[in-house]
Amino acid sequence: MKGHIFMLLEDFISEVAGDEVLYDALDECSFDSSKGFVRTENYPDEQLVELVNIVVGKMGISLTQAHFGFGEWLYPKLSNLLPPQFTQYPHPAYVLKQLDDLHHIELKKLYPDAQPPAFQYHSTTPYTAQLIYTSPRRLFDLVKGVLAGMSCYYDVDIEVELQTNWQGNNNCAKFLLKYSKSCDL
Ligand code: HEM
């Protein structure tokens, strides 16, 4: 995963748990965390998992809560990464519809060696849609959290129903979305 995400995770931990927890956790990691993460570098996912596991243990929260909380916090920060025409819309559906292109085209311009997840978006009625997420990282709770962050950011409630193992693929999940405001996309 990109150093950028590690750096955002550090900001999140320091905001919700404090700098002491963050620095203690970094000290406990089995990898060398003394040099700090470089935004543009790729780091092994195992390092992210290890850091998250240590912090979760220190805070006494579940991994599900941690992934959801980080995702929810993350959306405004991620949206700042791209020029406003990609994210400034009156409804989250506009961004969700182009989520795969955002990760695979726009993000690759910033970080050519990124390994982003895949998304498919189908609008089913003006109030409902399906978002299909595929990634070997299986960060389903993170996606749920980002959706909650989007709900707040765009001021549109989103009810989310998750179906894992979509079409027999462990790496794939379908999210059924129900919006409180309609969108004719
Ligand atoms: C709109 C602005 C967004 C930007 C700029 C953005 C950017 C990024 C970046 C930089 C990564 C790391 C990729 C890597 O390390 O190779 C990433 C990963 C990820 N993004 Fe986004 N993202 C955006 C929106 C979203 C939304 C709306 C969702 C979910 C609804 C989402 C879900 C994820 C997930 C789950 C990952 C983790 C990687 C994986 O699962 O394989 N992102 N994104």
TrEMBL record:
Residues 2-161 form the Heme NO-binding domain. One of its GO terms (molecular function) is heme binding. It holds the Pfam family HNOB. This is Heme NO-binding domain-containing protein. Coiled coil: none annotated.
